[in-house]
Amino acid sequence: MKTFTTSREIAVSKETVFAAFKNPEILAKWWGPAGFTNTFSEFDFKKAGKWIFTMHGPDGKNYPNESVFMEIIPDEKIVIRHIVQPIFTLTVRISEAENGSVVHWEQEFDNEEVAKNVAHIVIPSNEQNLDRLTAIVCQ
User: Fold this and answer.
1) What do you get for the CA distance between the two ends of the chain, in Å?
2) Alpha helices of the chain — where are they, by DSSP H?
3) How many Å separate Cα 18 from the centre of its chain?
4) Which of 18, 50, 91, 134 has the CA that lies 20 to 30 A from 104?
5) Ordered DSSP codes for 5-19
6) Per-residue pLDDT for 135 more than 90?
7) Cα 21–chain centre separation
8) For 87, which DSSP code?
9) Is the distance from CB of 28 to CB of 54 less than 8 angstroms?
10) Is 129 exposed, middle or buried (0-12, 13-18, 19+ CB in 10 A)?
């Protein structure tokens, strides 16, 4: 297994959820697992645009990240290609729900062995990421 998926219903509109990805000031506040903060050095939210940032862990370590936006469909879909190790593609789909939106999160690693080795981190981290997104957009 090299793909991890999770979904979350959030009591806000698709537009509000999408705005939390599109706006770097908002995104920096919620991106990553619990306890992490972010410093963005480049954020070009368009197809083929780069996103370069450092995640600062609660352990005091810095984790450099570099990604490219592969596809953006406003209020519906964002595909992010993480181009430094570990290599993966994150596809976020946002759909309408009776009481707001559903965010479907699919993270597919290129290498099955890498996915196996990071599963114990990725699975809870993806849930924490959605917890943080929910907290920001439902304020």
Assistant:
1) 36
2) 14-22, 24-30, 112-137
3) 11
4) 50
5) EEEEEESS-HHHHHH
6) yes
7) 8
8) P
9) no
10) buried
Give CA separation, 61 vs 36, 37, 46, 55, in Å.
Answer: 10, 11, 29, 8
Q: What are phi and psi of 24, to 5 degrees?
A: -60, -30
Rounded CA gap, 55 and 40, in Å?
9
**Beta-strand relationship, 3-10 and 100-109:** antiparallel
Question: How do residues 22-66 score in pLDDT, each as one tens digit?
Answer: 999 999 999 999 999 999 999 999 999 999 999 999 999 999 999
3-state SS class at 125: helix
- Angstrom distance (rounded) from CA 132 to CA 130: 5
Q: What are the tokens at 44?
A: 């070009």
Contact assessment for residue 128 and residue 33, using Cβ atoms and an 8 Å cutoff: yes
Place of tokens 């480049």: 42
pTM, full prediction: 0.96
